[in-house]
Structure formats: structure tokens, C-alpha cells
Design brief:
This protein has 10 helices and 9 strands. Strands 3-1-2-4-5-6-7-8-9 form a 9-stranded mixed β-sheet, covered by helices on one side. The radius of gyration is 18 Å and the shape is globular. It is α/β, with parallel strands linked by helices. Helix 4 packs across helix 5 and helix 9 runs parallel beside helix 10. It has a domain of about 110 residues: Aldolase class I (TIM Barrel). The longest helix has 15 residues.
């Protein structure tokens, strides 16, 4: 099986041992290492270091058991991926006030225990019924890598797998995920650390998400999502767009302008309404002026 040094910032797989191994085999070989990572959990960039196997919880409040709050075919994602079977795992390491699924996303005890056999059967039925892909998301699925790897090991190797993430994972998490997902969809939410801290209670956001974006762009097909928020065109979208145009100009960008004041948006005056038509048009105009590749 691959050699990992769990708990270290320099987790490196034995790529030779995985050469010519099917995706399901790679995932199966990493399960024990992923579970060992929970002894000193540093899968997300909060780096809490708690022993989740002993029931201790970090900032995400997740223990060792994953739960699912949704597993159904969706048609609201990127056109080339839909219909997709969306498997949403409960719990998240960010606290975005505007989260559209905040009640479930914030609560790792929401939903029902993840049953790998049942989820794999659901996925196979969805694929047989015309689904183009299987998307694993949250909350934030990085919290639950042992369960994710168990599920990937049980899925057909020929299926298109999509990893939907907030981009707040660590190198340790990336190594465990390497080569398993065809498409990474990363939410690049904030254009600066101040907005990230105020709206999602996360520090050092910019450096972490950019590191994950660069890695994903080099190792898989990448789609970057950005939700334009009212009052955040200049401080968030413009810096995001300009960095993407400079660092990865050909990346696919899903620019979303349909902000809805969900969950705890009322705590922030500028988030109590929707994005104006003028701001939505300006967001698109700016993207096109930079030559970004916008997709639906």
C-alpha cells in the first residue's frame, strides 16, 4: 500500500506502488492512512490537531463518523456535469453566514449515517439512469476523507467523479485525494482575508485557497465558482477575477450572480438583499474584459 507519514505537513505517496492501479484500488489503499489522520486531524487548514477517533472535535465539530444530508440527482450545477448525483456530507470547517444549506452544512450530525453500500448502489442506479457524474460535496467533504475513500473504492472506475470543495484543505488532504477525481470544483469565495474573516470566520484564507487552486489546476480538470455578493463586487470579485486571469487564464469560471440572503446573512447589512442587475452585469463585464472563460 502507499507509504504516508500521517500527521506531517510533508505527506508523500509512493507513486510507484500506485502505478497502473485503478482508481478504486488507489482509494482502497489509502483508507487506513486517512483514518489514521483523524488521530491528529489536520485535514483542513485550521490545523486543529484533535483526536477525532477519541471523540474530540475541532472547529468543524465533526467526529470520526460521516453523515449524509442529501443524495439525489441535481441539474443546477455546471452544464457539462449535469445531471449529477450530488452526495452531500454534513459538517463544514467554514462558517459562511450566507450558506444556502447552513443548517445541514454547519452541523456534522445532520442527516443519516453514511452507508457505503447504499450510496454506491444509489450512484450506480443514477449512472444507469442517465447521470453524467457523481459529485461529492458538503458542507465540506474534506472533513470525512476516510468515508470518501471508502465510497470511491466502491464506485465504478469509469464514472466521472467530481470533488466540490471550499478549497480550505491541506497538502495532507490533497495527497489522499490525488488522482481520484476527474473534476475539482472549488469555491473561491472571498477576494481578501478581511471579508473571509468577517463572513466565514476563517483566517489566512487567500493563501490557502490559492494554494489549492494551483494544485488542482495542475492535477485535474478545474472549475472555479464565485458567488457575487451584494456590496462585494470591488473587494471580492475583482481581486478574484484578476488573480485568475493572471495565474490560470484558461480555467473555467462559473460566475454566479443569484445571491440569496440565506441562513445568517441578516447579521451583515450588505447581505440582506440580492445583487443588483447593474452589479451582476458589471461582474460579467469585468470577467470578459480580463478574458476569463465563463461557463454555465
Amino acid at each position: 500500500m502507499p507509504a504516508f507519514t500521517i500527521g506531517s505537513a510533508d505527506v508523500v505517496p509512493n507513486s510507484l506502488a500506485e502505478e497502473n492501479v485503478a482508481r478504486s484500488g488507489k482509494a482502497a489503499a489509502r483508507i487506513r492512512s486517512a483514518r489514521a489522520a483523524l488521530l491528529d486531524c489536520r485535514l483542513c487548514a485550521h490545523l486543529c490537531g484533535v483526536n477525532r477517533l477519541a471523540g474530540r472535535a475541532g472547529l468543524c465539530h465533526a467526529d470520526q463518523y460521516a453523515r449524509v444530508f442529501q443524495a439525489q440527482v441535481e441539474v443546477s450545477d455546471e452544464l457539462r456535469l449535469t445531471p449529477t448525483l450530488a452526495i452531500a456530507l454534513s459538517g463544514c470547517d467554514l462558517r459562511c453566514s450566507f450558506c444556502i444549506t447552513g443548517q445541514e452544512s454547519w452541523n456534522p450530525q445532520a442527516g443519516r449515517p453514511a452507508d457505503i453500500r447504499e450510496l454506491a448502489s444509489t450512484a450506480k442506479r443514477a449512472l444507469a439512469g442517465g447521470a453524467r457524474s457523481i459529485m461529492i460535496l458538503g458542507g465540506e467533504p474534506t472533513l470525512h476523507l476516510p468515508t470518501v475513500l471508502e465510497l470511491v473504492a466502491a464506485l465504478p472506475d469509469e464514472a466521472t467523479l467530481v470533488w466540490k470543495t471550499n478549497g480550505h484543505g491541506t497538502r495532507q488532504a490533497r495527497v489522499l485525494l490525488a488522482g481520484l477525481f476527474d473534476v475539482w470544483v472549488i469555491d473561491y469565495k472571498f477576494g481578501n482575508d478581511q471579508c473571509a474573516s468577517r463572513l466565514a470566520r476563517v483566517s489566512n484564507y487567500t493563501a490557502v485557497v490559492r494554494e489549492n487552486l494551483v494544485w488542482a489546476h495542475a492535477n485535474a480538470e478545474l472549475v472555479v465558482r464565485h458567488l457575487v455578493m451584494p456590496g462585494h463586487l470591488d473587494c471580492c470579485w475583482r481581486p478574484v477575477a484578476e488573480w485568475l486571469a493572471e495565474r490560470m487564464p484558461n480555467v473555467r469560471v462559473n460566475l454566479r450572480t443569484g445571491f440569496w440572503p440565506a441562513w445568517q446573512s441578516h447579521r451583515h447589512p450588505e447581505l440582506r438583499g440580492t445583487v443588483t442587475a447593474a452589479d451582476a452585469a458589471e461582474a460579467v463585464r469585468h470577467a470578459r474584459s480580463l478574458g476569463l472563460k465563463l461557463i454555465d
